[in-house]
Design brief:
Neuraminidase; 389 residues; mainly beta; 42% strand; globular
């Protein structure tokens, strides 16, 4: 048996046992498999290289190094992680910049009609800002993907200064997801032997103090019960955080992170997996693994992840692959939702829905040029008949 056969035999059965109760009903009895998505096949790409299902349309809202249309603000290079925030009848899309030294983050403010009202910088003086996460109290956690990287809590309106949240650890941060039920923040780490963390603040809504914990389980665990242990030194010096607790479970390149109704989904790029942590039961299982797919895996190079505010659908972006944003439904079907053509040297980043769930934003980090500087970055908006519950 090859690796795919071994994993399919061993993990699918164990995963089915791990997914129980609400998680079983809402997510997966086994790792997701290819199928026809709820929106059908993709139509041929238009002039902008964007292929979408019937009924959906896309537009470019910003390009790196160019003025955001309708404003005087120049959009940043290498757009990465993003999120949307309600702004009266409109909304704000926040986007990180994954470049060294001058990274930071910017924002575009939209009116209720979807028109651009303004664009501006919300974070400066940081480096390689990759992903992050929105908080329930309407701030953006921007994460540095560098050794001893920081988490910066920023204001999407650009009024209040950003604050470094040292208690959330100094490591190669990737993404963050808030769990308002248990009042913790989950964090991923982009290392080949990285860990999955949670930050337990001293007071919910205030990330100034608290405890950093790491998920623990036997080596090689892909499903079953897990525990949490405190990280002795969140500052990570001289011993990196991921090496301070011997029982910590290792993950191959942590990427996106998304919490929804008791489950925290997170991705690992080294093995093309989407994990599901059942916070109530304190168990993990595989929601997707390309080694468990029958036939050709539709989703590779897993990266950023987000969910629809209208239902339980997950959207997983590819870093490489064939430049798709894939949809994973609650009944375990994985299928492409959109594809970018002519941008093979780029990656899809920052998927996020507006509060109403009828507009989806994302970026092509390097665009058509594929320049490593991210100077060719493109940020898109997709509108259409996104389904309800």
């Amino acid at each position: 048996m090859d690796r795919r056969q071994v994993l399919r035999a061993g993990v699918v059965g164990a995963g089915a046992a791990a997914f129980s109760g609400a998680l079983w009903e809402r997510a997966f009895a086994a790792a997701a498999q290819p199928g026809v998505g709820p929106y059908g096949e993709l139509l041929p790409a238009g002039a902008d290289g964007l292929a979408l299902p019937a009924g959906f349309t896309g537009r470019v809202v910003a390009r790196s190094g160019r003025t955001v249309p309708g404003t005087t603000y120049t959009w940043h290079a290498a757009p990465d992680g993003g999120a949307c925030f309600a702004d009266g009848p409109g909304w704000i899309y926040v986007s990180n910049s994954e470049i060294p030294v001058a990274g930071g983050a910017s924002a575009i403010r939209f009116g209720s009609d979807g028109g651009v009202r303004s664009a501006y910088r919300i974070l400066s003086g940081t480096s390689v800002n990759c992903a992050g996460g929105a908080t329930p109290w309407h701030t953006w956690l921007s994460c540095e993907e560098i050794p001893h990287g920081r988490v910066l809590e920023t204001d999407p309106w650009g009024v209040r200064p950003a604050r470094e949240r040292t208690g959330m650890g100094r490591f190669k941060h990737e993404a963050a997801a808030c769990d308002p039920d248990r009042r913790v923040v989950y964090l991923t780490e982009d290392e080949e032997d990285g860990c999955f963390y949670r930050f337990v603040p001293g007071a919910w809504g205030d990330l100034d103090t608290g405890r950093l914990q790491v998920l623990c389980a036997p080596v090689g665990t892909t499903s079953g019960t897990v525990t949490w242990r405190d990280v002795p030194d969140p500052g990570g010096r001289p011993v990196p955080t991921r090496r301070q607790v011997g029982a910590a479970l290792r993950f191959d390149g942590g990427e996106g992170c998304w919490y929804d109704h008791g489950t925290c989904y997170f991705t690992t790029k080294g093995d093309n997996r989407v994990w599901a942590y059942d916070a109530a039961a304190s168990t993990v299982a595989l929601a997707y693994d390309d080694s468990l797919v029958s036939g050709t895996p539709p989703l590779t190079g897993v990266d950023n992840i987000t969910g629809s505010p209208r239902n339980a659908d997950l959207y997983v972006a590819e870093d490489g692959g064939n430049m798709e944003l894939n949809l994973i439904t609650a009944d375990g079907v994985v299928a492409p939702f959109l594809r970018l053509t002519g941008q093979d040297a780029s990656e899809i980043t920052g998927p996020a829905f507006n509060p109403a769930g009828d507009r989806l934003y994302f970026s092509s980090q390097r665009g058509v040029s594929g320049a490593k500087s991210g100077s060719g970055g493109i940020t898109y908006e997709v509108t259409g008949p996104f389904r309800g519950p």
